[in-house]
Write a structure and sequence with these properties.
Structural class: mainly beta
Shape: globular
Distance between the termini: 19 Å
Helix content: under 10%
Order of helices and strands: EHEEEEEEEEEEE
Oligomer: single chain
Number of strands: 12
Amino acid sequence: MILSTLAESGRVEHLHPSFKLVLDYVKSHDLTKVPAGRIALDGDRLFINVDDATLRTEAEQALEVHRRYIDIHFPLSGSERVGWSPLEALAAESSREPFDVARDFALYDLPAATYFDVVPGQFYVMYPEDAHAPIIGNGTLRKLVAKVRID
């Protein structure tokens, strides 16, 4: 997991060939005013989901994991609390939804090992080994989730 700011994004751009492209796109476009939906940057290899999310409590939000994609989350309209746990610490029997290959998604009903807050101008990167519980808080949040395929 990586937590950084858009101002310091150059420090992480070299970690994957698509990171610079998505970070440059986010920095050069006002995505607060575009309709919610998907922005394809490179087909299903790199895209951005623009979402107006209803925030949930820590207890309501399950940990999620992915295998084929790295997520880069960008809160746009306010703060977001995020839970994180190492995937290796999750027991298979705690899975609410077993891994679905087609959706690249599984859910776990466990509390996160740690929580942190993110505000506009910051972003966080979640690798497949990072179980994460995003969109925690009160109200709604305009946010972006860039999906970077790793295979």
